[in-house]
Design brief:
Strand content: 25-35%
Number of strands: 12
Largest sheet: 9 strands, mixed
Structural class: alpha+beta
Order of helices and strands: HHEEEEEHEEEEHEEEH
Number of helices: 5
Radius of gyration: 17 Å
């Protein structure tokens, strides 16, 4: 898929509402949460987080290689207190000093993998994604021209690697897994790639990316 087609399709994409930010009105909060993409999409009986959500932003970096685009992902280090060892996008919490979600995603990306903001052309955003751990994630899509200057923060990031966009766009690679959890069963997406299992919010956002870029 070309850079131009990605930009065109994201320009037509209507992302879900920015989402719940701690409304005091229970009915309004419930309506917001229903409008937001999240783990509960695949789990009708699962209640989204009822507390005020913590705003976060991630960058979905599309590396524009001549032979085809790829998505830059990271693997978190094993010692972190949250989501240790998981595959994720570069990103994190939106801080008070951040102008908006775009600024937060670019700042966190530079801190985690050393990619300067001026190397990223922001072309759109995907649906807000609410996690079961109470984060409200805004995924920002940016295109990066290679070569990509990578300098990872060894405290947070064990490895940075790329997955071909064609792999992500192929719906056959979106495996839906069901697992029993107590009296309930839970469904989630897994994208297995070269010995790695991409799951959780990262897989959900990648599936959303495939939806946004679909013919």
């Amino acid at each position: 898929m070309s850079r131009e087609r990605v930009i065109e399709r994201l320009a037509r994409w209507q992302p879900g509402r920015r989402g719940f930010g701690g409304s005091a009105d229970p009915a309004e909060a419930a309506a917001f949460r229903r409008a937001i993409r999240g783990d509960h999409d695949l789990n009708p009986g699962m209640t989204p987080p009822s507390t005020a959500l913590r705003p976060a932003a991630v960058l979905v970096p599309l590396v524009d290689h001549t032979e085809g685009m790829s998505v830059l992902l990271t693997q978190r280090t094993a010692h972190l207190s949250a989501h240790a060892g998981q595959i994720s996008f570069p990103g994190g919490r939106i801080e008070e000093d951040d102008q908006d979600a775009v600024a937060a995603a670019l700042r966190e990306t530079e801190e985690e993998v050393g990619l300067p903001p001026d190397r990223v052309s922001v072309v759109g955003r995907l649906d807000t994604y609410v996690t079961g751990t109470g984060f409200e994630i805004t995924p920002i899509v940016g295109i990066v021209a290679p070569p990509v200057p990578i300098s990872i923060d060894p405290f947070e990031v064990a490895e940075a690697f790329e997955v071909p966009l064609a792999f992500i766009l192929d719906r056959r690679n979106h495996q839906r897994i069901e697992r029993e959890s107590g009296a309930h069963s839970r469904s989630y997406f897994v994208l297995p790639y070269q010995g790695r299992n991409i799951w959780g919010a990262t897989a959900g956002i990648l599936v959303n990316l495939a939806e946004a870029l679909a013919d």
